[in-house]
Specification:
Length: about 400
Amino acid sequence: MQQYDVVIIGAGAAGLMCAAQAGYRGRQVLVLDHAPKAAAKIRISGGGKCNFTNLNVKPEHYITQNPHFVKSALARYPSSQFIELVERHAIDYEERSHGQLFTMQGAGQIIQMLRQECDWAEAKIQLNTHIHKLEAQADVGFIIQTSEGDYMAQSLVVASGGLAYPKLKASDFGHRIAQKFGLNVMPSRPGLVPLVFKSSWKDWFSELSGLSMEVEIRSAGHIFREAMLVTHHGISGPVVLQTSNYWQPGQPIEINLLPDKDVLAELKQLKSQSQSLNKWLSQLTTKRFSQAWLAKYPLDKPLAECTDKELEDYALSLSQWRLYPEDTAGYDKAEVSLGGVDTNEVSSKTFESYKQPGLYFIGEVLDVTGHLGGYNFQWAWASAVACAQAV
Ligand code: FDA
């Protein structure tokens, strides 16, 4: 049986970062992954350009049962440190809206950088490895039986990610390990995911598919303003993905289609100048949207004949358009999963489980989900670095 100081399950963002950092501390590290390639999610992230962090990372950008949990790791490894690492590897990057940083040449560079760091730190990465059995043994640590042999480790780090995107080998393995050792796991659901509609709404959106417009969406007390993209099944785009983290089935969402406009004032002006509602809306959105909107929400009489109350109601239909999504598009289309290993079960400083000494959880396997914008990777890096100091 081969012996290591640290075995890490999952060669994704958190696992590779932790491996390199622990390796630099002189720990003998082995990373195991059942997938044929390391860090598959990094490769497809950010449309292939990897939104690897954000200039403005705050605890408020994270959703977790215990909002204080993320503070320590994020403070100890701010985004500036990851940017420094990226710069040391001469990776070109650009800042896009909302402080989001993306590589210029492609996400593969971030994977290459992490693998290079693991090589320099002499941390070993072993892919295509299926874990059959895990056991904790007093004085020994952990025994890990796999398709490629058996291993012993003092510390076991679970970095197996969340449930989103199962076609890239996402699994609930980390949640099952937590449960096996008696840790609580918060229920999971898809996050950063499109919202879908059924029957007539689905058909309505499908007709408009491909349309993009900047809107403001309010849901469950949270408000986001970014681009909305209409799809064949409903709505997507950054503003919808952000909203999906807070939306619960059965709840409405409220869309302000014209967030820069005082819609009532404009309708009153249109009325006084006897102008066309269709022309006005076409100019502010698109001809296609305006026509579809007016077919769905026609004014039952000419603008000139509308009372102030009728104008007010119509203005509200545009600025507080209330919709009831049927569901999310599910894990197949989600960027992350909400829920995961209960943050009350592990130390926010070391990520070690309180119930099982030597057992650590980092990255998305934990009940920590970031907003869209590089926050999820920053969580992976920061939790990995904190854990690497402790293993
Ligand atoms: P991650 O999922 O990266 O790694 C887990 C690893 O564990 C995988 O390699 C997996 O194969 C392995 N594993 C799972 N089960 C196993 C088992 N039973 N045995 C062995 N190994 C196992 N975030 C962001 O900040 N910016 C962005 O641009 C994007 N873009 C994006 C696009 C898309 C399409 C997706 C699906 C996701 C994103 N994300 C993102 C989210 C981001 O990818 C995610 O939060 C991090 O990869 C999480 O890092 P982890 O290391 O925790 O898990």
